[in-house]
Amino acid sequence: MSWFTRKDKGIQTPTEFKREAPDGLWYQCPSCKKAIHTREHRLFAYTCSNCNYHEKIGSQDYFELLFDQTRYTELDALMSSGDPLNFVDTKNYPDRVKATELKTGLKDAVRSAYGEMNGMPITVAAMDFSFIGGSMGSVVGEKIARAIDYSLEHKQPFLMISRSGGARMMEAGFSLMQMAKTSARLALLDEAKIPYISLLTDPTTGGVTASFAMLGDFNIAEPGALIGFAGPRVIRETIGKDLPKGFQSADFVLEHGFLDFIVDRKDLKDKLTSLLGMLQK
Ligand SMILES: [Zn+2]
């Protein structure tokens, strides 16, 4: 019955190359191209088990990673954007917002919530890059300001997770005002001696970097995050010089004194807990 016995030895297909796996079960790392089972990827906090590439994730994933048993209460969940300038580019701004809401299931580029992290009460605001490039308009500013108010009122630490392309051009000047508003609120938190940790993820740029993202008692970043104000091309053209290697990477920014430390996402919850534990003693 030789039909049923394998004659050639050593014909082996590594599990990740087996074809019969249904779509969506495998994640391919964009950096090292290794295929990882989505369950394993999730278990590793959406980092690559081979090269440690940190996949860009959104507010929901951060809330699940940080809040105990994923139990949290969202603040201002339904707040959505107006159109103060009647702005039109290729689309009317309200149409663009509506289309993005439908596509992402989000109301704007930030979500805020309170809950417990390893038993410690905390308020967290996390940005969603999928919503118009994580741009900061009035809603983002207002929701962050209100989340800070919540922290103040309940005397609990505030964690901001930034991932943003900067100000939202469709709200122009109104976007820029959010920088002053959030910064002023953070000053109140500082006066009340309530800790504020700012986590910068890939990418954090523009008006977000120029306001709340860099105002933490601790400014920390995820590995490999791009952090800057203007993009490298604009800077190169302005100063007329080539930029150093690794310019605007988290490592570079840390080396130049703008960050306190870089934290692997897998250790984020525990590191934050011990840091805040020390600050509250
Ligand atoms: Zn990888």
From TrEMBL:
Keyword set includes Transmembrane helix: no
**Essential cofactor(s):** Zn(2+)
* UniProt entry keywords in alphabetical sequence: ATP-binding, Cytoplasm, Fatty acid biosynthesis, Fatty acid metabolism, Ligase, Lipid biosynthesis, Lipid metabolism, Metal-binding, Nucleotide-binding, Transferase, Zinc, Zinc-finger
Q: Which PROSITE patterns match?
A: COA_CT_NTER (PS50980)
Q: Which InterPro entries match?
A: AcCoA_carboxyl_beta, Acetyl_CoA_COase_Trfase_b_su, ClpP/crotonase-like_dom_sf, COA_CT_N
**Which first-to-last residue range defines the signal peptide?**
none
Where does each C4-type zinc finger lie?
A: 29-51
Cellular localisation: Cytoplasm
Q: Show the catalytic activity.
A: N(6)-carboxybiotinyl-L-lysyl-[protein] + acetyl-CoA = N(6)-biotinyl-L-lysyl-[protein] + malonyl-CoA
Q: Where does Zn(2+) bind?
A: C29, C32, C48, C51
Which GO molecular function entries does the Swiss-Prot or TrEMBL record give? acetyl-CoA carboxylase activity; ATP binding; carboxyl- or carbamoyltransferase activity; zinc ion binding
Q: A Gene Ontology biological process annotation?
A: malonyl-CoA biosynthetic process
Q: A Pfam family in this protein? A: Carboxyl_trans
Q: Which GO cellular component does the record give, naming just one?
A: acetyl-CoA carboxylase complex
> Which pathway does the protein contribute to?
Lipid metabolism; malonyl-CoA biosynthesis; malonyl-CoA from acetyl-CoA: step 1/1
Per the entry, the cofactor note is: Binds 1 zinc ion per subunit.
Self-association state and partner proteins as the record states? Acetyl-CoA carboxylase is a heterohexamer composed of biotin carboxyl carrier protein (AccB), biotin carboxylase (AccC) and two subunits each of ACCase subunit alpha (AccA) and ACCase subunit beta (AccD).
What does the function comment of this entry state?
Component of the acetyl coenzyme A carboxylase (ACC) complex. Biotin carboxylase (BC) catalyzes the carboxylation of biotin on its carrier protein (BCCP) and then the CO(2) group is transferred by the transcarboxylase to acetyl-CoA to form malonyl-CoA.
Family according to the record = Belongs to the AccD/PCCB family.
**Could you tell me what this protein is called?**
Acetyl-coenzyme A carboxylase carboxyl transferase subunit beta
Source organism per UniProt: Aquirufa nivalisilvae
The gene from which this protein is expressed is accD
